[in-house]
């Protein structure tokens, strides 16, 4: 039995930019909600999809914003996209999918928590997201990430091939290189190649010797890189805290609760009626009366 964990925040963004605009009878933009219903119904029809949960960012800000002023916020996100988050959560629940709507934590923290909690109780945990942050959750070929758009699976070997480091080093990698999507500036001069080479040897930031003369890995510009890191080591460790996913998000469900038994007919039909969705209301292939 496999557990599929859906990054519903990403899916909603993807649907917003990838599906046509459409208006509900009351005039509200709901194209992204339609899109996430469409893509989730496709997922639920795939072979081997038996246990499913989804996580959303009910608000964009999280505890990380209290740690670092530059961390990502909801600023700049289209209001008509933000307004669809509650409807998307309602739609997923109507489809019979467990939804973790995060406020203090982020959706990625919920996915990381679930992946760790149930990795020993399933044949495989599949995190459905292209987000590089989530690649730190990968364990061998038992916990993997899957990019649905590109149809690419990342097990441990694939993570190493792409980034040059083990999954456990992904938070350190992002702390040094930076992650513009999350507002992580990184450390000056530390690019992908140099960071991969150093972390492939030392794994964690705190294990990198304080002087390049002590490094036993050949890296171009090692002296400059070392000096930059030593001038900003506290910042690098803070960035690593920000890029490290939490594994203690409050998830109340058991694994049995995540078994997909079908869409909730009355709730799903009522939602489609309210939002002006036509034929899709008959698309679920299994129902809970």
The domain count comes to 2
CATH class of the largest domain: Alpha Beta
Shape: elongated
Predict the CATH topology of the largest domain.
Rossmann fold
Give the total of beta strands: 8
Please compute the radius of gyration using only Cα atoms.
Answer: 21 Å
Mean pLDDT: 96
CATH level-two architecture of the largest domain: 3-Layer(aba) Sandwich
Give the N-to-C terminal Cα separation.
Answer: 25 Å
Largest sheet strand order: 3-2-1-4-5-6
Order of helices and strands: EHHEHHHEHEEEHHHHHEHE
Helical fraction equals 25-40%
Count of discrete alpha- or pi-helical segments spanning 4 or more residues = 12
Task: Characterize the largest beta sheet: strand count, sense, and whether it forms a barrel.
Answer: 6 strands, mixed
Describe it.
This protein has 289 residues and is α/β, with parallel strands linked by helices. It has 2 domains: 2-162 and 246-288, Rossmann fold; 165-243, Orthogonal Bundle (DNA polymerase, domain 1), CATH 1.10.150. Helix content is 39%, strand content 12%. Strands 3-2-1-4-5-6 form a 6-stranded mixed sheet, sandwiched between helices. A hairpin with a 4-residue loop joins strand 5 and strand 6. Helix 1 (8-18) crosses helix 2 and helix 2 (31-44) runs parallel beside helix 5. The longest helix has 14 residues, at 31-44. It is elongated, with a radius of gyration of 21 Å. It starts with a strand and ends with a strand. The mean pLDDT is 96.
